[in-house]
Design a protein that fits this description.
This protein has about 300 residues and is α+β, with helices and mostly antiparallel strands. Helix content is about 40%, strand content about 15%. Strand 5 and strand 6 form a beta hairpin.
Length: about 300
């Protein structure tokens, strides 16, 4: 797979003369590097050529065609985010193609990711409320990605029977949780038809996407922009990062009143999806994605999701 040089990226984004090579930062859904040039420091993102649209059908560019205009709207609205850099020859928005890969660049943000003892709940609640106001959608109900793991009892029984036959160490726990899986599926299916507050949103308000800087937190990685219920996303994030997030969200104008007992149902949906994905990987129905490290870890993650299904 093609890896650019510092000079290639600097020329493609008109960043001046490089001061040293690209410095590798991390590998995940993208490769990322730090670049220093005569005009400053930059964060470089190189997308995998095989990556498809995460929340849109089709190619990665279809996802970015939704994500980048929303990111631009957030920037104009004053959301705390990294400053994108425009390429000399854009393929789309802030993205350019070099050989077989798509690349984009941000001005470097000096900071660190949030740790468990950091309290960013007030900022996060306010930021999430602002983001949810940027692009409300007219359609009622929840988007298709909510429905991925909503399968009939017979499907789960078939998979769990196969797991028991193969002697999978998670099969007994899976059978014990089957009634809860069926119950949650029915509740989520009903909510998918009636949720009234569909919006475009950042889609990944998690601690690894929040950098603490000298001037305050910054929300990064806007590639996962998607439609969601505003209130249900707020409930899910508050469950992960603290109730004060929800208090700040409501104080900033976020509305959760319609959800009733279903406020945290997004947490159950996320766990149900974790179960669905890992069951299929462990039964060898689908190949493991890059982020699933090994079979033992995947089994542990499945057992954890079953235990915390709600």
């Amino acid at each position: 797979m093609y890896t650019p040089t510092a000079g290639v990226i600097a020329a493609a984004f008109e960043l001046g003369e490089p001061v040293g090579d690209l410095v590798f930062v991390r590998r995940g859904d993208t490769d990322t590097w730090r670049l220093e040039t005569s005009s400053g420091r930059y964060f470089v993102k190189g997308y995998w050529p095989t990556t498809g649209g995460q929340f849109t059908p089709g190619r990665l560019l279809d996802q970015l065609a939704v994500a980048m205009p929303f990111e631009e709207r957030a920037l104009a609205a004053g959301v705390d985010l990294a400053q994108p850099v425009s390429p000399r020859e854009p393929e789309l928005g802030w993205v350019t193609r070099i050989h077989d890969r798509l690349f984009r660049v941000y001005r470097w943000v000096e900071g660190r990711t949030v740790r468990p003892d950091d309290d960013v709940t007030e900022w996060l609640g306010q930021t999430m409320a602002l983001v949810h106001q940027l692009h409300p959608l007219e359609e009622a109900g929840l988007p298709d990605w909510w429905r991925t793991a909503l399968r009939p009892r017979s499907d789960w029984q078939e998979w769990f029977t196969e797991a028991r036959r193969r002697g999978e160490p998670w099969s007994d726990a899976a059978w014990e949780r089957l009634p809860r899986i069926v119950e949650l599926t029915a509740r989520i299916e009903q909510l998918c038809e009636v949720a009234p507050d569909r919006v475009l949103t950042h889609g990944d308000f998690k601690s690894h996407n929040i950098l603490l800087t000298a001037t305050g937190p910054v929300l990064i990685d806007w590639d996962s922009v998607r439609a969601d219920s505003a209130a249900l996303e707020a409930g899910r994030i508050a469950q992960m990062l603290g109730r004060k997030t929800l208090d700040a969200y409501v104080a900033a104008g976020g509305d959760i009143t319609w959800t009733g007992d279903d406020l945290y149902l997004g947490v159950a949906r996320a766990n149900l999806h974790r179960i669905y994905d890992r069951v299929h990987v462990l039964l060898d129905h689908i190949p493991a994605p890059r982020w699933m490290t090994n079979r033992e870890t995947t089994t542990h993650e499945l057992l954890d999701a079953l235990a915390h299904l709600g």
